[in-house]
Structures
1.
Amino acid sequence: MARPRKFDEDAVLDAAVQCFWSRGYEATSIRDLIANTGLTGASLYNAFGDKRAFYQRALDHYVEGSIGERMRRCETLEPREAIESFFAEIVKRSLDDTEHKGCMLVNAALDVTSHDPAFQEVVAGVLLRIEEFFLHNVRQGQADGSVTTSLAAEDLARHLVGILMGVRVLARVRPDRALLEGAVRPALALLAAEKPGAS
Amino acid sequence: MARPRKFDEDAVLDAAVQCFWSRGYEATSIRDLIANTGLTGASLYNAFGDKRAFYQRALDHYVEGSIGERMRRCETLEPREAIESFFAEIVKRSLDDTEHKGCMLVNAALDVTSHDPAFQEVVAGVLLRIEEFFLHNVRQGQADGSVTTSLAAEDLARHLVGILMGVRVLARVRPDRALLEGAVRPALALLAAEKPGAS
DNA sequence: TCTATTTTAGAACAATCGAACTAAAATACA
DNA sequence: TGTATTTTAGTTCGATTGTTCTAAAATAGA
């Protein structure tokens, strides 16, 4: 019926993610987005609504492409391995992050949830997905004997989400390998602490 | 020699902390600060310099009055007790935080360090102080037998800073008692895990 | 080839931003 | 009491903010 869109929505969202990710919500202007996505103001507002809605789309895009993808990749592994490999990847990504952008979800958690309950629910939902990923693997590991049963699976999962968030924060400020690996190591040691004489 | 200041610097800094803490750096305008501190634009720029410098002063004020004070209060306790009491207070404060402001230092870590290396160093310095607080107590606890020696004191301290940051992030998004206490409990259990048959 | 429909391109909008400026007010020292 | 010095109180500045508007350009169906 009408003129088709010239731009590639996925590429535009990638560019928008880059902007919001590295600069944050407030510090990213519409003109930043225009310059980096290549589309014009009218197209942006026409296709995505306002700045807030555009951020929402960008965040979803990031979550699915980054966190969701990582969880899917770890699903094929053994429970303990899945958790360890998850954290190994987080540490590696944090150390390779020369721009110190950190994780866009964690950034969103402190940046954008404050005065927008809708965003808070979105972020809380993703955190819940991550917690359930950990919980699933912890339970599986407890069942096959590779994970300690000295603590409740729910608490272990909550602890893992906690240390995940913590590592992401630390990495933004002090991206040292010793710090990040040191912060993670006790959590992984705790998981395996079932039969303690087995060294 | 000249006209003395009418305002109370400490009260002004308290008000500034409230602004920056709840709204963040970018979202806090000079006019917000003027309205909430009670002083005028000229007085503000005259006494504190520009917005950036004012934020720096406010952050210092917060750190000394909140984090520094908490560490000082825990210094008189036994090592294990000091760590546990520290986290108990963090969880309590997070649950009582109806505004979901979280910890201003953690907010600063993700908000203001990105494109200002000076701020990054300030925040990193405070994190180091907290890490050293934990390290001191862990070492003391390992010496008197109340803390496990199955992991290096350095790693335990790093882990504790990590989970501290993590709890602060989680609380911003999902301030549930079960989540926060669940995230902390395994870390405290790990500290005590020295003689594992003692249940 | 016409026409309806939608995306483009870029200018324009009011509002707000951080910062600076001009005087008036006020006080410690002489 | 006079004077030097500093804080006050608003106003004002140019730049930038998010958003909207007006046309021109482009294409699918008739």
Note: Residues 1-4, 6, 29-31, 41-42, 45, 50-51 of chain B lie near DNA strand C (CB under 10 Å from a C1').
2.
Amino acid sequence: MGRAPCCDKANVKKGPWSPEEDAKLKDYIEKHGTGGNWIALPQKAGLKRCGKSCRLRWLNYLRPNIKHGEFSDVEDRIICTLFANIGSRWSIIAAQLPGRTDNDIKNYWNTKLKKKLMGNFYINPPGHSNLSCGMPLAPEQRQHFIDPFSPTIPTLSVPSSSTSDFYELSPFNSSSSSSAATNLQSRETLVGPINMYGHEAASCSSSDGSSVDKDNHHPRFDHHQQVPNNNLQGFSPSHYGNEILGPGDQDMINYGSNSAPLDYYGSIEEIKQLISNTSSSLTTATTNHNNNDCNYSGFLFDVENRSSSPESVAANVPTRADEGVLYYY
DNA sequence: AAATGTACCAACCGCGCGCAG
DNA sequence: GCTGCGCGCGGTTGGTACATT
């Protein structure tokens, strides 16, 4: 009954990987693939490692196209807005950031981004479009500081009609396939939960993409996520390639006229609350969603304007016409 | 220069789910 | 239907580098 034991834990090496081990693992996988069996892999590859450890090492470090180094403002925004929407679902967030792993994002969030947000949680007064986030305010500039934990802080709502209050992240150059009309309409349909689409394996999450998305299924989301399963199909970073966050990303991202780096507007409040109340955030969000009282904001996809060809639907691959526009503010 | 504190990140750990047997 | 393993995930830890005192 059952399968063979995972590994002989007494005979397994732990700790940092040596260059030799890395080379062995990489060489083996490049030649033979994972074979869909991580447990058997280390033995085949001649490694005294647990399969789990091999998997982690490969997915988080050795795999091709892994991005290391600084996160861009664009990535910051995506992380923050997704965090505000779905909480600490790092694999999902990683699916939106080509080349980044969930572990990477998680570390970045815990060590930098969270502090960056918490340290700059000053909400600008009405009429001031920019929430300074990522740019610490001088003490004299903090006259409008609002205690983020104050119960008097209103809950987030979809911002007003000013399009400059929105950031638009299009998978493609804003001047390309996403028509202005579509974008405009999208702005006017800022409703509903997060909707991502296109889900061929592309994530650099420690989930290798094959499991999370291969069957359009995220096990945890299915059971207690606030986001419906069919709304969690990443917008396929691989489809867009690294372009989305590449050197040309400025061409793809229309920040709006009043934008400044790391402006999150109201969503900062949600993020803050999530940070301060991580344990309950998912439950709350789930409840909200289940009650159709979804209070999500800040990271909205154009649902209505999706036009999916039968082919793309069948293959779960977005066509260019299928490209949605991702808005966040 | 040494001690201490802090930040960062790779890796580990434990849990839940799905599936093989 | 039951058992137990494989896998994926998120949380946590430990080691190292850097900063500060």
Note: Chain A has two domains: 13-62, 73-328.
3.
Amino acid sequence: MTTKMSTLYAPTLKEAPGDAEVVSHKLLVRAGMIRKLTSGIYTILPLGLRAVNKVAAIVREEMDRAGAQEILMPTVQPGDLWRESGRWEHYGKELLRFEDRHGRDYCLGPTHEEVVTDLVRGEVRSYRQLPLNLYQIQGKFRDEIRPRFGLMRCREFIMKDAYSFDADEAGAEKSYRAMYDAYMAIFSRLGLRFRPVEADSGSIGGSFSHEFMVLADTGEDTIAVCQACDYAANLEKAEVRGKFDPSPEEGPRLTEVPTPGAHTVEEVAALLDVNPTQVIKTLLYDADGQPVAALVRGDRELNEIKLKNALGCAELRMASPERVREWTGAPVGFAGPVGLGVARILADQELRTATDYVVGANKADAHFRHLCLGRDVAAKIEYRDLRTITAKDPCPRCSGPLGLPRGIEVGHVFKLGTKYSEALGARFLDEAGKERTTIMGCYGIGVTRVVAACIEQNHDEAGIVFPPPVAPFEAVVLCLDPKDETVLARAEEVAAALRAAGADVVLDDREERPGVKFKDADLIGFPLQCVVGGKGLARGVVECKDRRSGEKTELPVEHFAREVALWRRAVWCGWGLGTGDGVEECR
RNA sequence: CGGGAUGUGGCUCAGUCUGGUAGAGCGCUGCGUUCGGGACGCAGAGACCGCGUGUUCAAAUCACGCCAUCCCGACCA
């Protein structure tokens, strides 16, 4: 049975909704694939769900191939389990909490480390049961501070999350590698241009991780990519390398100068007529309750994640203006390292060469000139890599040139270590009969976000340009004269031939003018479009269009079945994809 | 959480400043003409103008409160 547009619930819109900002959001709504229920929460309509399911199917295949087993965990989770892991207190407001009728605490699962670890600790008691990798594809809820951009950052979304359990470090490495490889296979098969990048492991915790970024100018993340070697890292992670030799401690003496009202680096630099590179920013932080100062050059950006990692603290917050006054004795804007009473002072490594800088004097409306860190600061200074990398910095691996493209995070793999297995007591007996803690990894793919990212990367003026593996239907047959039984019958034959060639097909049999069908086909972004109408049939041809290239090919009605299979393969090739029939693989 | 903006038929918006009969386009229903890149004509249906309170003879319009949605920001001294 051919799916027919005449009965499909796919309400397309000529105009974009007023509340949509980004292109994937606008197009998903216009193409009749999603509708908003409330902020950050969407209903997925038939066409949207088909795209989501296509992504899910490929994810499932590759996960199974990698040896993971599918399960389905509950969305509602007991608060007590989250207390055991310590995250009931630490996860914050993204965790939507509520009580049942008995007043017991529950939450909607934003991720499932607790539940899966609870599951495994009950049954896995022997090294013989390891390794184990369990995954699910399921709705997640995260009460985002500010949901936005349609399916890109919403509160309720569909995610594939997998969790690996291993007996030892080597096994955990292997599991991690298997997932990394599976993710490479998944995103390649989906027809996306993407990069795996080194990443910080963030709040989930753990020691090592990679993100999978779909390259798109509208991405929320910036990544550092080497143009010479294969180094790629999230901007927050990318290391800055270079030679930073201590410089001779000489030069003019430290001098206090009045700088009334000059709070920012720009104001101070302008007032003293120096370059911002000659100013040191002193940033004050509260690190697990301890006062800490971080020093970077005036034109640099401090990378808080690097600072947090360098300090090894759990919570890092910028000091409040009251704290700043308390620690420095001056209002915000005049902090400096000279005589500063904080627990630790960290400085970016490039300041090792620091001579003749301008810094705050820890006194209202005053700064010092001619500061030499080694000479003028009595306290110990820890030099570390603290600043955010820039496009001007060399690649930390090979010193080649860096690019800073934008990306959308669609996948993330973590080595978790024993953080959750330790907290929840997931232990087993090894060969020697000794009790040990399982080593975990976790691996996520934002399935709904993949669909949105796919559109961000592939669209044009007319609408979505779906890669064939993601499209809700790979092919559409536009029947231009549905009232003419001969034409309609021919359209059904064309649809059958496409199906035989391996494509899933929708038949546009609506009693609409041709223009409406053409517009909708392009808007929804069916990769293969075949037009069956009186005019073409009179010449004995079916006109086929490749949505991506716009190229039109006339295929003879007579040998259509054979011709269309070849044409389909050519379209997939244009995407750099093979159709999997083994005839010819592209790329 | 701070700042800004918006809320008017299903959708996109005008009308609000200057209070006085609720509008347009799209979509929808019917009829007719059209029919290969979002057709045209005619006739229709459809709105507690986000909610509440107040001011007024009179409120979509003014005031206050609330709610919702979107955008920017969340401490880079």
Note: Chain A has 16 helices and 33 strands.
